[in-house]
Amino acid sequence: MNLNLLSLLPCTVCFVFAVLTTAGMMKKQIDYTTLTFLILLLLASVYFYIDANMVINTTNYRTLVILDIIDNFVCLSLLPLSFIFVTRYVIGADSVNVWRAALFFVPALVVGSVGTFIYLYGGIDEMAQFLQAYDATGTMPAGYEHSIFHAQQVVCNFIFTLLLLIQMIMFLTFCFFNIKRSRICVYFVSFVLICGLRVVLGRTFLINHPNISCILSIAICACAAAIFAYKSYRDEKRMVARIKQYYEEVYVSDNASALETPQNNSNVLDIQRHVELTMEQVSQEDKAEQSFEMDQASQLRLAAEIRHYIVEDQHFLDPQINIEKMAEDLKTNHTYISIVMRYMLGSNFRTFINKYRIDFAKKLMTSQPDLLLEDVADQSGFTSSAQFVKKFKEVEGVPPRRWQHGAV
What radius of gyration, in Å, describes the C-alpha atoms of the chain? Predict the structure, then answer.
């Protein structure tokens, strides 16, 4: 009973991770890399279910024949799908051409189709009897001289194993060359090597050595958990980085800095929900930027209005200033402002605002050298001295006081 449960553990773990991944995808826009990961988990669940039944089921060879037909398709699809996922995840989403990716699955389709034809042509019951006799003797049993049985051994054993070995070598080589780019490559290498070891040991060995089978099942679960946990961790960090970038761009405040430690920030979930709700709007704005049409005179006029609003009216000193408020005051939309600032003023909103805040702070520190740093930050439009020091150092390369001592 324990052997049966442990044999089914990798299948169960992968299925649970697939459910968790699906639940996560329902809360945000579809990410094709995550979608690939979901399909990979589902395929792995099917594969490990078949693998478990190959070890647990020692009498019903008719079921084994049906499972082997499915396995020919699934097993040879796992490594190509893993390659596509790791390539998209580590190198970039556009690194895998769709048609080239489709070619990766040709071996699975060919071997799976030919194997299915062989089993159906020979008859499920007849092939089940053949496999039972083959397992009992370990060699080609007497009475099965028909070419269809030899074809089964060539296609479903030799060619299948050869193609799987080639896929493993190619995938492991790719992971080794990219192991410095992401730790996920290490986990995938471990995962594939352990699964490969199960294939090399074979069904008969695993049945006769249940303890080794259990140890390998637990190791597979550990690797799968490591892959899932690392991907979840990296996805969360990327999401936080996107939220931080969004808030720095739009609100120019130190709220984004607090997102560096999201577990200690009670507002992060509210912020994240807000950003997720605006993702569709951001996507529409990206499309608007691509189709942006404004004559040169209108662009120059809007650029002058932006400069006057920020510099002449000294709105850069307002800690609560953001691009949306400026767009409302100028009776335009913040997409146009972002585009015009980027192309006409050579800067984004956050950088442009901070440049004038820092210039104003430098004048304050020069004219009033005894002014407290908190007061300098407050009068210059920064929400905190920590934010002021950080932004000042980014622009000047030194902290404010060190700059002040050199300037006075």
Answer: 31
Confidence bin at 107 (pLDDT 50/70/90): confident
Confidence grade of residue 327 (pLDDT, cut at 50, 70, 90): confident
CA pair distance 10, 51, nearest whole angstrom: 10
Q: Is there a domain that residue 284 lies in?
A: no
Identify which has the larger pLDDT, 327 or 244: 327
Long-range interactions of 251-259: CB distance < 8 A, separation 24+: 251/322, 252/321, 252/322, 252/349, 252/350, 252/353, 252/354, 253/319, 253/320, 253/383, 253/387, 254/382, 254/383, 254/384, 254/386, 254/387, 257/386, 257/387, 257/390
Count H helices and E strands in the chain, helices first. 19, 0
Q: Which amino acid is at 254?
A: D
In a domain, 270, yes or no: no
205 and 349 in a single domain? The answer is no
Number of domains in the chain: 2
pLDDT digits (tens, 9 = 90+) for 147-206: 888 888 888 888 998 998 999 999 999 888 888 778 888 999 999 999 999 988 888 888
327 touches 334 (CB < 8 A): yes
- Whether the CB-CB separation of 88 and 36 falls below 8 Å is answered with yes
Query: What does the DSSP 8-state code read for residue 154?
Result: I
